[in-house]
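Inputs:
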Amino acid sequence: MADIEPYLFLAPVAVYALGALLALVDRHAPGRSPHAAALAGSLIGLFVAVRALLAGTTQQVATFSIVPFASISFRLDPLSAFFLLVISLVAAAASLYAIGYLRAETGSVAGLSAAYNGFLAAMALVILADSVFAFLFAWEAMSLVSFFLVIHNHRQDEVRRAGFIYLVMTHASSAFLLGGFLVLFANAGSLDFAAIRSAAANLPPLSRDLAFLGALIAFGTKAGVIPLHVWLPRAHPAAPSHVSALMSGVMIKTAVYGLVRIGFDLAGPGPAWWGGLILALGVISAVLGVLYALMEHDLKRLLAYHSVENIGIILMGLGAALLLASFGQPAGAALALVACLFHVLNHAVFKALLFLGVGAVQHSTHTRDLEALGGLIRRMPWTAAAFLVGSAAISALPPLNGFVSEWITFQSLLLLGTSGSGPTVAIGAAGAAGLLALTGGLAAFCFVKAFGIAFLGLPRSAAADEAHEVGKPMLLGMGLLALLCFGLGLLPTFIVRLLAPVTNALTGAVAQPSLSLVPLTAPSRGGNLAPLSVLGLLIALGVLALLLGRLIGGPGRSRVSPPWVCGIELEPSMQYSATALAKPVRIIFRGLIRPYREIERQHKSGVAYFVSGVSYEAGVHPIYERYFYNPAVRMLLMLANQVRLLQTGSLRMYLSYMFATLVIVLLLTR
Amino acid sequence: MNLTLLLANLVLALAVAPLLNGVIKKSKAGWQNRCGPGVLQPWFDIWKYLGRESVVSEHASWLFRLAPYVYFGAHLAAAGMVPMVLVGSPLAGMGDVIVLVGLLALARFALALAALDTASNFGGMGTSRELAFASLVEPALFLALFSLAIPVGSTALGALVGDGGVTVARLLALGVFFIVAVAETGRIPVDNPDTHLELTMAHEGMLLEYSGRPLGLLLWGTHIKQLVILSLLAALFFPWGIASDPSAASLAVGMLTYLAKLGLLGLALALVETTNVKMRIFRVPDLLGAASLLGLLAITSIYVVGG
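Outputs:
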């Protein structure tokens, strides 16, 4: 067994590969067996990850030399192990869910299931890669497989367009990644991460910055950082829901992994402006992401914009960590890194839960349009409960998991403010904290909208009226994640302990936030939080309210009656709509989000007094499209026009190009 | 955590909160040359509602029935955490000021959902306005809190209680906090606690479908929230007389000064309500945005003026 031992951490990848194979071979149940394999793979991955994190420093290397100049090697260090944990947790729930979800799926289930397993394998390989060659290979595989998953419903125009934009953005960004790695290669003289890591200390500042910027553009695109996020709100909704859950919950986190790996490990330690830039990008993504989310009425697009928002919050933690590390404060950097990574895990859990919930809604009502939903809490009670837990978690409400990681983010921003590195940093940190608070408030608003309009009140369409609860495997997948939202929120000390080897390896310190299960005396620095006791207290005081009511008012009486709507019959269309609910925000932030509204009246026989119909359209004009993408696309088209001069279509011309190129190459390499 | 202290604290909060609202109403009536209801009237109201039958919309779900308990419980928990008479409040070990703000957000979230649950459109109207204001209050509140937290390096409630010293930063933060208090307690010029007119209401719109015992609990919860915010304001900016140890003498002094401070803050709120008119809804963001800028100025002043 001694020979296999170092390779064992690749077992989940092998099982995923097996699952992909099963999907193509098993013709009887193409939906079931591959997802069962994926479930097994993710459970193995979970075991491998937790074992590695508990053991602390284990680093296993597996090298395959296929081509002589580039070795393909993989390694499981604490950081990789943590991301493997994130992938495996979400994959387990999504696979379980998929078994039920795909029963009604039309189209090629076999291809979808194979790609699903391939996607999981590719993501695992990305975070396990230990050489440039392996990383880029896995990265491209992940992008391509996810492209095929996005265009699964390729008969719809919209889906094909989303897939195209995704493909363009992801490949344009890969070029920057390659550039960044080439700079590192030029310095280290080797494609192995180990060599790059040991050469990092002697990196000239310019190369260091170039490598960082290349990685930032590439990973920023994949993570969905504004303004590089344009593909995200299009591609994530286009994919089937269990895939959206994986893309939003996990795939964009591989980019965070890449940033941490480059910023702390391969090209680090960097100058302070790296952290400052990432913090600023995080703030912009968080605020704009949540504002665009509030303007959305397609549930999946709404969730996709919230991924942009949460990546922003994650980057705030990462930016603070990089800044504190560059100020020589490893303990603070460790805390901020915990904020970043804990939010990575939390966001993966609740975002996957929400996407699975929307998938269930769509499965049962065939629509994702908020304005056509309503009243689902009576028709789909379990889905509603799970979605409510996810909504509360993403809105950062205590004592759920989203609150805990945002709390740590606030603490690290406070640490940054008190780090004694000048007023600019302190004011910037406080400003970031203020905008994080704004983001939290708007996120809560957005999820009141999402949950309140979709699940409460009266159904706004016949489809919503006829909705029914989804099957057990789907509920099980959602239930698992809902429990995790509670578990991670109530027992955060466990995760902080799991993260200790990660921060120790990257920053040289272990974070010790005052998180506890039972109330402690408040520390003199920082803040304190005991989420389990908060929950206990809330329950106790809720019961106290019940008792007080009974004590003072005697046994309660209640009567059910129709709501008062000024004496007329209540119609579902009289309820507040999602558009109306978000209107104050649309007006307050109109300078930022540029809303538009077009009302067109059709007149009967051209007489202005008789209106025969009214068409109404409202939406937003994103500023980055106007000032960034539209000019860029125009320039690209102009360039393409110039290049066309070379493309005459004449075969002789092309042959002469080849000949000329050959002569030039021979001259140059003489 | 001392159980006796905790119980005493909860009883104090439960008893004083409606009374504080009565004082505000009475003094507001006084400023307006009216006689007004007695200071105990909020107590009588709550007592009455708790015994009344409740009417529930036929479209409402379990959320509508659960929300008042969450609302009441979260605010009472916050009341246990905020320093009132004693610097080290009995539940300070549960969490810091960020947790306290989180509890208020939890209560708001529960009530906002309950308001949408009845299928009546007034609930949606109230929710929409209240949440828009609340999201703008958050940055102002956090900037003010950070301007207090940066000098002491802590967000723990006990550490934030000032020494009564006056600095530029604290003065500016006090201004922010006062605007936040007006907005969070739903008072003129941001909201009007005394009206159910749909043109102006925000918070009251969310309560509109409630009746009987749940309404009583919600009113009580709203009073407790008001108490929490004013107590926080008092503890952070006017800490004079607050007890630093749980001995009988200092507790007595703490209690007397605490009640006096609450009364004065109530008078100030009533004065603001009397001398201002209700703003148009889309002027409120200007006020709250100005509060945020003031908060940023408070932090800047730490470095420019040196504390």
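Remarks. The first helix of chain B runs from residue 3 to 31. Chain B touches chain A through 96 residues (CB under 8 Å).
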